[in-house]
Amino acid sequence: MIDTTILSWVTFIYFGAFVFYLFRMILGREFWGKLAGWLALAGLIAQSVALIIRWKASYDLGIGHAPLTNFYESLIFFAWTVVFLYLLIERRLKNRSIGVFVMPVAFLIMAYASIAPGISNRIEPLIPALQSNWLTSHVLTCFMGYAAFTVTFALGIMFFVRKAAAHDSSGVRAFIHLLPSESQIDDLIYSCAALGFIFLTLGIVTGSVWAHYAWGSYWSWDPKETWSLITWLTYAVMLHVRMMRGWRGVRMAIMAIIGFACVLFTYLGVNLLPSLHSYL
Amino acid sequence: MSKKKSGIWFFFASVRLAIVLLLLIAFIAMIGTLFPQREAAVELVGRIPPGLFSFLQKMQIFDLYHSVWFVLLMGLLAVNLLICSLDRFPAAWRRFRLRPVPREPDAFKDLPEENLFYPESDAKKAADEAASLLKKKYHSFQQADEAGSVYLCAQKGRFAHFGVYMVHLSVLVLICGAVIGSVFGIEGSVKMLEGETASGINLRNGNLTMPLPFSVRCDKFTLERYKNGAAKLFQSDLTFIKNDRVIRSARLLVNHPVAFEGFRFYQASYGPVPGKKATLVLLREGGRRDIMNVSTGYTFELPGNEGTFQVLRVEDNMMQMGQAIKVAVRSEKEAATFWVFREIDRIKKVVPDVFEQVPVFNPGLFRPYTFSLLGIEEKYYTGLQVNRDPGAPVVAAAAVLLICGLMIVLFSYARWIWIRIDQVEGRVRISIAGRSIRNNVGLKREVRHLLAKLKDNLENPK
Description:
The complex is a heterodimer. By secondary structure, chain A is mainly alpha-helical. Chain A folds into 2 domains: about 120 residues; about 150 residues, no CATH class. Chain A contains 8 helices and no strands. By secondary structure, chain B is of the alpha+beta class. Chain B folds into 4 domains: about 80 residues; about 110 residues, Kinase associated domain 1, KA1 (TATA-Binding Protein, 2-Layer Sandwich); about 100 residues, Tick-borne Encephalitis virus Glycoprotein, domain 1; about 100 residues, no CATH class. Helix content of chain B is about 35%, strand content about 35%. In chain B, a hairpin with a 5-residue loop joins β5 and β6. At the A-B interface, α6 and α7 of A face α2, β7, β10, β18 and α9 of B.
């Protein structure tokens, strides 16, 4: 199928973008950064086209639905939101140094979607519980949240890299001046976590409304629901300690990483537990 | 502060308590995902020592989300939220009421160089441009003239002071809604066959049945499948009856509940009914052909005392090869047990020597008869979830409040902006200062933007 072919190319494009961001960092030349930025944008456009083709293909098969309904499609969409959000931030900040931390994540997600065993990339018909108008809004908001938390995590890693490099007096200084300052990274961590928190909240609320219509109860302590609540609480704590107790820097970077671990468990780990929510 | 506040008040007003409680709730919630909950706990019986099982049961680990622990934590969180909001709200209210004054002595103290510039135009024009800019961006402003200098001020985002209280209130409302739901709500289910009428439901908690003030009849249950066998659609046509009168008929689909007299009906599940009917053809070589409807356990004497035959099983999908029944035929001389597949011709096409490989798949194993299966009539029950939750609208309101509050807290902020136009060494000087609650980055960006805009307006007049 043409869409999966495009998507496997997109995987390599994202890897290329990562390599060019890395060149920029090592060689300290903005040229590579620009190239990487355009490459990532090209990948995002190609991916969007592939998603639209897939969407249309599902209608041609007579089972029309948004391409957001199985594990493969969710991974692809996850990578899309991560790159989309990153490019937005790059435009707004006019700083390309986050790319080297975000693009490998996008690449890994895409690669996992295409090579992991047991992941079907076929377009499948929807079971009755998924035939709902809430599907698109629920999945869209959840994955926007996941993507924002992924970028937050990448920023947390970047914070530690910057900190470690600043203490290192050997020749790696070249790229340090390309990175935002520690306080800028800290502000970005906060902004991304806040954005993710809003989207996660919207995702949980839309999910509850849907559950109310589909299962007859807005909250049934299903493991996926419970873990999304745990993630929500973790980021709620993160926002509170920053706003009310003045946590900054290292502590926030650690919180960003812990929060992301919760996100990963909510997304993937929960599948190890018995669940009603077994589609993704 | 004139109000006397005790140690308990401070304890419950503290952010530290809130953080500890949030983490504890997250922890307990996590434990709950590691142990099977409620009905599912039965699977642990026999797999762990009985002593441990009863200990865990006593600790309410198997119904953690309704346990004393969880309720206690939620209660503490509610008190914490309430007290800390009450504790801080008066200060927020004062900040909300406070208006900036143009002549604020501290505003321009230690102003960095980047916050000022020297325009070519005269002071009067600069002041007018600054005033119109503030009017445009902040809707209103205040002005004061003093000793040849002009002071302007404006503000924005006053309501951001309340965002956090909206969020806290929404969580309290949410807890109220959940409590209302658990006290006054009803969760039940009912299974029905086509044509059956139910006038009560099985409650989720315990094995009690609750009578309904009306009865509901399932007129028809429909199941459609995709080619791959997965369910495409299932629905029940229901009729609600009260005092022997039909009040309403409705079609119930997954994701489309039907409400009747305060109860909501959901299409939750379906399942096969035991005792499916299979249609079987019995062909005696060169002789008669009988068609009969059989189900599991059906026994039949073959004509002429040639033996008895019995249906052992009726399968919808035997080893992924479609509908099949298992029969046993016994006569004085021999006994045979074998399967009769509906699609035997197709199976033979794929595996030509199937009867050699698996003799029991041969429907002609008992000579001189050949069996063939015309079809299995699938009969299903429909599983309805029947709920009443007076707390749901309260929870919905809380969700709206929560989202609005979060938007305000995270995406808006209160700030004051001052502009001063004065003269230093014969040159006109414009200075812009600002103050914000918890968003110095945003404020810096805004001041920079104001400076650029004002500069542009002065240098390129329209």
